[in-house]
Amino acid sequence: MRRVVVTGVGLVTSLGHDVETSWSALCQGHSGIKPISSFDASDYTVRFAGEVENFDPSPYMERKDIRRTDAYTQLAVAASKQALNQARLSISEHLAPEVGVCIGSGVGGLWTLHDQFAVLHQKGHSRISPFFITMMMINAAPGVVSIQTGAKGPVWAAASACATSGNAIGESYETIRRGDAKVMIAGGSEKAITPIGIASFANMHALSRRNDDPQGASRPFDATRDGFVMGEGSGMLILEDLEFALERGAPILAEMAGYGSAADAHHITDIEPGGDGLIRAMQRALQKAGLRPDQVDYINAHGTSTRLNDAAETQAIKTCFGEYASRVAISSTKSMIGHTFGAAGAIEAIIALLSIVHGVIPPTINLHHPDPECDLDYVPNEARRTPVHVAMSNSMGFGGHNACLLLRRYEA
Questions:
Q1: For the chain, is the Cβ count within 10 Å smaller at the N or the C terminus?
Q2: Do the record's keywords include Metal-binding (predicted)?
């Protein structure tokens, strides 16, 4: 099996429209969660979220293409082109068949769906856009990124709710390992902070209702947590066959070391209380990487700030890591950017990778009243400067999906 490395990353989050801005804010413990500005939410039960504000897609796409794509696809194109630029990779006609794309989303073009339903009801069926389907569909993002970049290898979309882009990256890693591509553009994108998005999750009683304290609302592992906060953004990684990366002199940021995926087979929304699926996903990732639990320096937790998730993930880590669980550093960066659904796995894998590159672990902010059920080292409130050789990123999604990614410092 081929070794796989990461040579470029791209980010768009509520904290910034690129990697540098987002990473700096995360390390300073800043929050991107604010009152909603994209629509009038004044009479909604939940009135705040982690929005990507004032994003301009024009540096990345032509005006015609912007008009024919949903905002979630535009974020995916931006993050993909950022990642390709860092990787110093230009996709020539000769290379194109060896470059694939796997990009996932939880709900796809929800803003397009919102807008076109309004057109249907206000102006009638004849005014529906002919681009409606191609703007809304979940595979629009990888399709458009393929067209925009010229990638002609395996191109598809992953969809496993909030585990989506963890699976997208993991399956891209496996695609390269088995020789079906030399390069994969992999990640996720989400732009679901819409009237129906906020209303539906609020009515599920899944969201925090701290309207008077948006930046303090996402508080993973805290005893006073009352639900997650919706976020949006995109994260993309350039994965490459090691030999190909070395041959072209690519900048190697880290090695993709392992991937595991497993299901709870328990409940459509609730994680299995002991975290059985996540346990097996973590164990498989460690086994594939040939690593012991005590070699992991940092875990970027799924850590949604919900009662069930945080307790179950804590228990899963204890079961998988044994006595070492109390010594591994863990943090949930959803405390700062919110839950970005289908983009979460990729954004958080990039954060895990950057912890290796920079030797800094971003904190879990708003952790002031530790839950007795959540009694591990969650790097509370302040970033920690420490060498990170191996980092893990956990993702879990509605439907019982679990994905685990392992990255390690590259050594020849």
A1: C
A2: no
